[in-house]
């Protein structure tokens, strides 16, 4: 009997030791973290076993909505993690993890559930083809990635399926030709890039494929002749750039080839007169600029050459009297300016030269009106 009691006691002690060891090995606690010190805005909920995060993981927004769920293994993300739209709790995106690194296919969704994007991760970086979709299901963009950056050709699509844009990347930097198209498939622009900067000839086009503009860049800086065209092929505007600034003569033309405007730049600053013409060939406006490129005088003319307006400026602001004329040459209106504001007595005349009204201004504000 004593022997049997000893055996029973030994067995009981062994079982107790086992229970204590088991309890120690599997101590578990729930962890809650918060956005605020008062612990009212819950941030995370997960469990720790022997001090190591394990099992279900939940992340919440400061506003309280569930933002993400997943699983932790030995303190690392493992398996599928799902992100949610805060308003509806519908799935926004899911990403697969292996030992805390993104790995494999990830998908994103529109709020109504349609597929938005599909991509793949390799060793925590986006690799291979990335497909983006319109909510209708039509493909929106197809891109190649390497080491988390665009690499190779990227194609963008209009929702009708036609190509919108083709461009190329090298290690995340645009390089090579970039072509753009309208919804009907017509080419609208072509540009060339080198290491992320415009380089070489750049074109835009009208719907019929004819040239709309032709520019040239060197390492992101505009150089040489700039040409713009009317739809009929006639030159609309031409000028020259040097180190990114306009220099020399610039001319604009009507569609019939007649001159519309002429002007000159010196080191990027307008100098002298800019003269605009009516299509018939008579002068419409002469704008004069000082050495600093500030407007100093404007003269406009009626189609028959009669003076229409004379305005004086100082440092680009109206100064002195601005005078308007009737086609018969008589004054229509005389308005005094100071520092760009009407100041003094404005006089308004009838076509017969009779004074009709006087208005008094102080620093741009009308203070008195006198009818004659």
From TrEMBL:
Signal peptide: none
InterPro entries xrefs: MORN_2 (IPR011652)
Pfam families: MORN_2
PANTHER family: MORN VARIANT REPEAT PROTEIN, TPR REPEAT PROTEIN
Protein name per the record: Exported 24-amino acid repeat protein
Source species: Mariniradius saccharolyticus AK6
